[in-house]
Amino acid sequence: MSLPLAGIRVLAVEQYGAGPAGSIYLADLGAEVIKVENLREGGDIARHVGPHFFGPGDSQFFQTFNRNKRSIALDLAKPEARAVLRDLARTAEGEFDNLRGDLPGKLGLTYEHLRDVNPRIVCAHLSAYGREGSRAAWPGYDYLMQAEAGHMSLTGEPDGAPQRYGLSVVDLMTGLTAAFALLAGIIGARATGQGRDLDTSLFDLALFNLNYPGTWYLNAGHVQGREKRGGHPSLVPSQLFRTRDGWLFVMCNKEKFWTLLAAALGHPEWGTDPQFSTFKARLERRNQVAEMVEAELVKQTTAHWLRKLSGTVPVAPVHDVKQALDNPLVAERQSVRDFAYPDGRTARLIANPIRSADTEWPQRAAPALGADTDALLQDIGYDAARIARLRAEGVVG
Q1: DSSP 283-330
Q2: What residues of the chain score a pLDDT lower than 70?
Q3: Strand, coil or helix: 159
Q4: N or C: which end of the chain has fewer CB within 10 A?
Q5: Is the separation of the CB atoms in 38 and 46 below 8 Å?
Q6: In the 8-state DSSP scheme, what is residue 143?
Q7: What's the pLDDT score for residue 188?
């Protein structure tokens, strides 16, 4: 079958992590994502983020976020480059950017600036703090949002320092949210013939992801803090436990799992004891329950408990990155793929989490800087002499 997003062209004025992490979903599923890179700065700064590289200007960090895309290099500080972008916008359904909030307007990337050349275009903007308000011109990054939006106060041990996540979760989720917004806008524009601006920001996403602890504060005045061993705030037991040789995460997030766990630990009576038989009772005795469970788990290895509990009680071992990717389930799920360069080399990358039984997603490595400049300009009617002049003047690369 054809790719689900085939035929959608998106201009992506994107850089580093959050924006590219969103548009990769579009590219993997068949959209033509044209990555508009800053010629003056040597392209997306992510090309130069080490320490691991496939070649000059081709970092493994960059490859992570930019496979299956095309690249055009423009110096948008120059009016003629902005004119080139407007010509490209005539042929696109979407414009997607992750810039400081005040820059889309200055660079002519908003619906107001592009509607005259394409009234159907949808412009999705991802910024740190939004395009309006007191922080529109502020730079901002994932870890700052984790700090200010309360995430670090919920992460780590109660008696320890606040902790960030081990991964850039705010970047990754805001990128996906922006891609979702863009597609929603395109569906609307196809129905009405009218595009629009759609905005999201790292801060708004981080705040939205406070989720039910946020609701608890807004309606009950409860300020949730950190729980021991990464424990769930209200479901017990649902946390890390020590085994004889490591760690095991156990999640009894349904009442039946507590009964099954108790039996597997050799204490079926815990499942019917009124002190422990309900969520409410166990929450009131959180520390006691944790001590009871761990006293049994430390008697055997993690592997022993995985054999005994897996598929019955929700459990998982704690893996490092190597163990996570060497997990046999990864091979079974075909979750790592080889993405091909034009010269036959490959970059080994984690597969898109969206699957289709009858369709293979494309597997092209991220492009070199400006790899598609000539082809894209020819596509919109520029002849060889004009392209050569623009290149000589530093407008395109």
Answers
A1: HHTHHHHHHHHHHHHTTS-HHHHHHHHTTTS-EEE---HHHHHH-HHH
A2: none
A3: coil
A4: N
A5: no
A6: H
A7: 98
